[in-house]
Each structure stands twice: as structure tokens, then as C-alpha cells.
């Protein structure tokens, strides 16, 4: 693998909002090379063999946590996993004290998921370690947006002018916000679609179109990125029932077969099968959901590698 000595414009990846289009393209270029690595018989490189990374997950996550851990191990980093459910956080220790105690063990980078929006930004002002935001509340999830856009680019080439629809629970989704920032920075045309109760009131100010008509949106778009209904973040009812939601905003084979051609189907996972997607759509030849998972490891390898380069 050739060494890329270019650097990101920031020492943290806290959100897509903080990255430049050049940063995003550099991450994609680096991910191309790491994707070749992880498809070799020996899937490991010594790039981060002197780096220790702590994964701090204050919210449950299987997919993202495993993806980051695999990326770290593919880069030969030393990995420490931290779970809030079995930590001193439950005994009343503050976030900053918890992190400082971990850093005192000579940790170089933190990958953090936290239910409070802005938590990684707060830490970035108080500690020296590089921080990667693995999701903060309903704010951002930058590496998910990067892997989504990277997966789209693999299918479509340059995303400038491409029509991308983000469907579903926009209100509670950190994936939606990061996707909007990422895709608009790359020149794509973005439309959000869902029930009016799940569309933030002023989202059009971010430069996206808003629609409440699923069929018309599917006729317009080239890619449909379908979001999960996040019932765990909903303390009131935003629609009558899951059956009602599925009827008006769920993707099924009959709906897609009525369009003028195939659409690329994406989902950040986990999927509520039969709600936002039927199985025959999720598992169809036009779905790139499993490619997103594979690309997630390459993108996270690229982000961690580039942050390590910035330390040297």
C-alpha cells in the first residue's frame, strides 16, 4: 500500500460539518487503498502499531462498535473497549473524569458514542487525544455518512448533481443530518421524505428539498437511503402505528417495480424488516446494504489512519 502523506484539515472527526470537501475526498481516496487491503488473504497492515485506541460507547451499538474495532485491529492498533454499563459512570463519575482516567493509561485516540449531542465536541476542548465521533445523540454520525456517500460514489461515480433521497425518521436521525452535510458538500441534490411529524421544521434551510410523497420522491431519485424508525428516541406518537407507517412510507417490491427503472437501495441498519423495508427489497439485487457494511470498515480505517498521520 502506498503511503499517503496528505493530512486532514482537523485533528478530530467530530462531524461532517467540520470537514471540507477536500477532507472527504482524501478519506475516500485512502479508503480505496484500505479496501484493497481488507480483500487480501492477509487483511492486516502495521500502520497504527504504535497507537492505542479506546472505544467509549455510552450507548448500545453492535454494528458501529464492531466495525470500528475491526478497522483498528486491521491497522494493528492496540484496542481498549469501554462500556458505560459496567463502568464508574454508573457510580456518578463525570464524563471528563472517566476520559482523563483512560487517557492517563497513555491512550492516543478515542472513538466515542454518547447520547448527549455535543459530548465529543466538549471533550475535544479539554483533552489532547484525537476523537472520532461514533454518534452523539440526534446530532451527527460522521463515519456513517462517509461510508454512505462512498458507497454511492462506487455505484454512480462523481456525486455532483446526483439525486439522493433520504427517507423516513429524519427528526431523530443523526445519520440524516450527517448525510445531508456530506452529500451537499459533494454537490449532490438531496431530498428528505417522510411523514410531516418526522421532518424537522427548518430542514430546508440546509439546502435540501422536502417531500411527504414517497412515490413521487422515488420517481425523482437515483438512490433511496432508507432510515430506521427510532422508536427508542420517541417519547410521543409521531404516527398512528407501524402498520400505518409501512403502508404510506415503507418500500416494497410492488412500489419499486412501478417505477421507470431500478433505484439503488441503502439502509444504515439495523433494519426493521416489514416496516421501512420489506425483505424482498432489502435482499434484492439493487440493495447495497451489505456493501455499506464492508465499506464501513475501509472508511473507518481511513479516518483513523489519517488522524494518526496528523499526530506525527
CATH topology of the largest domain: Rossmann fold
Q: For the residues shown, what is the average pLDDT?
A: 91
Radius of gyration: 19 Å
Shape: globular
Task: Give a written overview of the molecule.
- Residues 1-5 have low confidence and may be disordered.
- The protein has 2 domains: 16-140 and 296-311, Aspartate/ornithine carbamoyltransferase (Rossmann fold, 3-Layer(aba) Sandwich); 142-292, 3-Layer(aba) Sandwich (Rossmann fold).
- The chain has helices at residues 21-38, 63-74, 95-103, 119-124, 142-156, 174-185, 214-220, 242-249, 253-257, 279-282, 289-311, and strands at residues 52-57, 78-83, 109-114, 130-136, 163-167, 189-193, 209-211, 223-226, 264-266.
- 38% of the residues lie in helices and 14% in strands.
- The protein is an alpha/beta fold and 312 residues long.
- The strands form 2 sheets. A 5-stranded parallel β-sheet has the order 7-6-5-8-9, sandwiched between helices. A 4-stranded parallel β-sheet has the order 2-1-3-4.
Amino acid at each position: 500500500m502506498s503511503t499517503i502523506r496528505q493530512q486532514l484539515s482537523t485533528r478530530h472527526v467530530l462531524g461532517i460539518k467540520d470537514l471540507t470537501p477536500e477532507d472527504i475526498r482524501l478519506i475516500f481516496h485512502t479508503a480505496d487503498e484500505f479496501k484493497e487491503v481488507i480483500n487480501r488473504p492477509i487483511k492486516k497492515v502495521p500502520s497504527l502499531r504504535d497507537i492505542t485506541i479506546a472505544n467509549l460507547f455510552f450507548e448500545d451499538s453492535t454494528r458501529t462498535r464492531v466495525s470500528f474495532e475491526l478497522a483498528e485491529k486491521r491497522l494493528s492498533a492496540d484496542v481498549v473497549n469501554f462500556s458505560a454499563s459496567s463502568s464508574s459512570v454508573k457510580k456518578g463519575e463525570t464524563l471528563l473524569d472517566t476520559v482523563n482516567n483512560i487517557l492517563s493509561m497513555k491512550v492516543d485516540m478515542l472513538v466515542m458514542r454518547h447520547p448527549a449531542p455535543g459530548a465529543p465536541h466538549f471533550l475535544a476542548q479539554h483533552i489532547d487525544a484525537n476523537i472520532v465521533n461514533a454518534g452523539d445523540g440526534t446530532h451527527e454520525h460522521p463515519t456513517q455518512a462517509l461510508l454512505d456517500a462512498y458507497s454511492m460514489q462506487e455505484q454512480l461515480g462523481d456525486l455532483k448533481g446526483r439525486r439522493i433521497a433520504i427517507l423516513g425518521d429524519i427528526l431523530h436521525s443523526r445519520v440524516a443530518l450527517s448525510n445531508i452535510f456530506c452529500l451537499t458538500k459533494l454537490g449532490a441534490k438531496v431530498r428528505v421524505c417522510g411523514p410531516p411529524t418526522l421532518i424537522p421544521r427548518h430542514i430546508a434551510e440546509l439546502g435540501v428539498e422536502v417531500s411527504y410523497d414517497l412515490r413521487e420522491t422515488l420517481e425523482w431519485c437515483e438512490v433511496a437511503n432508507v432510515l430506521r424508525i427510532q422508536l427508542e428516541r420517541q417519547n410521543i406518537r409521531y404516527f398512528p402505528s407501524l402498520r400505518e407507517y409501512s403502508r404510506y412510507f415503507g418500500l416494497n417490491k410492488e412500489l419499486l417495480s412501478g417505477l421507470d427503472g431500478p433505484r439503488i437501495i441503502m439502509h444504515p441498519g439495523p433494519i426493521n424488516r416489514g416496516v421501512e423495508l420489506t425483505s424482498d427489497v432489502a435482499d434484492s439485487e439493487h440493495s447495497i446494504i451489505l456493501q455499506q457494511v464492508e465499506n464501513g470498515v475501509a472508511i473507518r480505517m481511513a479516518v483513523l489512519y489519517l488522524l494518526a498521520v496528523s499526530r506525527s
